[in-house]
Amino acid sequence: MPMSAAPAQDDYDRLQAEAVRATVVRLQHRITARFPERNLRNVAGELVEVVDRVAAGSEHARRRIDLVRRLSRIGVTLVVIVTIAALFLTLRGTIDQSPQRSWEWLPLIESTLNDIVFAAAAIFFIYAAPSRVERGAVLEQLHRLRSLAHVIDMHQLVKDPDRIRDDYDPTGESVDLRMTRTELGHYLDYCSEMLSLVAKTAALCAEDTTDSVVLDTVRSIEQLTTGMSGKIWQKISLLR
Description:
The protein is an all-alpha fold. It is built from seven helices and no strands. The protein has one domain (16-165, 175-239). Helices cover 76% and strands 0% of the residues. The chain is elongated.
């Protein structure tokens, strides 16, 4: 009996952009079906665009980073060669002068130390160039996701369960929810799901990086969305 092909390992140990996108699109369709007149469906559409941009930008960014990494290695090699050549010429020039006293070697020692320090600084700067390029591209997407999380939070901010109580006493400035208890529960649940997908998209941005700044930013977005979802579920628990 032929054995079925084993699934690719990447299907289990990596967050797949296609799966995240499909989940966001499904959520957008659910929101549109239940609340076609609400702007929350447009927010879900914005999240779909971010996921598409992250998925499309990952391959482009990877190629760009690989190019910068190759150029940085060439730059480091050139700096090392130039430094060795400069040290060799300085040493040969000093030996040709045949210094007789120890203090006459001080200019050589000083020049050698200066060359080594400048070379080390140049190597560090060039070697870190790929990380800076990668960090800038990812942080731009993460900033948009953080803003999107706050937009979602604004959509649920005035959705207070107290407003649908029979004994609620509205004022002239009160917001009319125009929702039943069931509809409000669905709306809040959609907001919570979308915040979770914002966190998943942020994790998708960091799938191919070990940069500490990027990972810290992703962690802060996860904490932000978790806190917002906690407030939403407090409202849902009051409805129930």
